[in-house]
């Protein structure tokens, strides 16, 4: 039998009391459990799963320099793509209360279903991206700044003359559709459908960033964490990318390369940083030539 608890019984009661609107909503419910959730890559945030009779909620305390940017971002994304994001209930100071999404991230999927799942995610995302026409905007300057940032952070892995520039012309006319901007293997949740969590605010939007980053994250984490399965990792990339048109994929190529640059600054599980460097350079120096999956395969070859 589940013992009903009051919110005051929780170890996190003092935290929740700092948010009276959220606290008032929850205090009138039968709370069965309050559990801290671990964030794979955003450890500074506090995440609480709060199971009540009517629903399971997530309380998220955003502990970054500008918490409102994430909160405003997810509210806009929910409005534009309501089926892709959890229900949102209350925003208060640097925290918000949302629906707990039942499902699995890429890391939790059975190895036999990863290819079919990422293929499904690609299909859903491509359909969402084609729903409307959006004004075109020039984001070359923003992408240039982004490239400089990631190249500088990875500077110790490159010779001074290596990877000093990129042709940003493909970003001169980009649909101004809102993008998640930090879509990775941990924050797309597979259930009956897919749900996206933990977006990030940037100075620009491009859904190709979501496509490129998610593909790079699943591809490399599958290869690095799950036994260097080269064939399976390439199948994952092919299954996901095959849902998108060539214009979007051309821009996604840049964001895949940028992702590998970013990964250089994190610990790998079984691979050397040389693999990541080769992947980054293959994607960023290809000048639009070559199939993306072939470029990934070449990056894994010794």
What does this structure look like?
This protein folds into 2 domains: 7-99, Phosphorylase Kinase, domain 1 (2-Layer Sandwich), CATH 3.30.200; 106-300, Alpha-Beta Complex (Aminoglycoside 3'-phosphotransferase, Chain: A, domain 2). The strands form 3 sheets. It has a 5-stranded antiparallel beta sheet with strand order 1-2-3-5-4, with helices on both faces. The longest helix is centred in the last third of the chain and has 19 residues, at 207-225. α4 packs parallel to α7. The model has no long low-confidence stretch (mean pLDDT 90). The chain is α+β, with helices and mostly antiparallel strands and 302 residues long. The protein contains 10 helices and 9 strands. The N and C termini lie far apart (57 Å).
What class would the helix/strand composition place it in? Answer: alpha+beta
Average predicted confidence as pLDDT? 90
The rounded distance between the terminal residues' Cα atoms is 57 Å
Q: What name does CATH use for the topology of the largest domain?
A: Aminoglycoside 3'-phosphotransferase, Chain: A, domain 2
What is the percent of helical residues? 40-55%
Number of discrete domains: 2
Radius of gyration: 20 Å
Strand order of the largest sheet: 1-2-3-5-4
- Residue stretches low in confidence (pLDDT < 50, at least 5 long) are none
* Second CATH tier, the architecture of the largest domain: Alpha-Beta Complex
């Amino acid at each position: 039998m589940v013992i009903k608890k009051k919110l005051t019984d929780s170890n996190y009661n003092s935290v929740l009391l700092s948010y009276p609107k959220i606290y008032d909503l929850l205090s009138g419910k039968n709370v069965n459990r309050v559990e801290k959730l671990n964030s794979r890559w955003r450890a500074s945030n506090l995440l609480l799963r709060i199971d009540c009779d009517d629903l399971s909620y997530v309380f998220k305390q955003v502990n970054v320099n500008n918490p409102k940017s994430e909160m405003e971002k997810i509210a806009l994304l929910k409005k534009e793509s309501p089926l892709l994001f959890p229900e949102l209930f209350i925003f208060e100071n640097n925290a918000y209360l949302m629906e707990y999404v039942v499902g699995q991230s890429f890391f939790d999927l059975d190895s036999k279903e990863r290819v079919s799942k990422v293929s499904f995610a690609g299909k859903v995302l491509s359909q969402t991206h084609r729903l409307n026409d959006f004004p075109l905007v020039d984001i070359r300057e923003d992408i240039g700044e982004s490239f400089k940032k990631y190249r500088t952070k990875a500077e110790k892995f490159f010779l001074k003359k290596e990877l000093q520039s990129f042709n940003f012309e493909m970003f001169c006319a980009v649909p101004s559709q809102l993008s998640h901007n930090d879509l990775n293997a941990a924050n797309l949740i597979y259930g009956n459908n897919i749900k996206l969590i933990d977006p990030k605010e940037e100075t620009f939007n491009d859904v190709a960033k979501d496509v490129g980053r998610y593909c790079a994250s699943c591809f490399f984490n599958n290869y690095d964490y799950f036994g260097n399965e080269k064939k399976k990792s390439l199948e994952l990339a092919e299954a996901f990318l095959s849902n998108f048109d060539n214009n979007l994929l051309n821009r996604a190529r840049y964001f895949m390369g940028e992702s590998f640059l970013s990964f250089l600054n994190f610990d790998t599980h079984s691979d050397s940083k040389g693999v990541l460097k080769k992947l980054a350079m293959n994607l960023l120096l290809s000048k639009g030539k070559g199939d993306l999956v072939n470029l990934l395969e070449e990056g894994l070859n010794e």
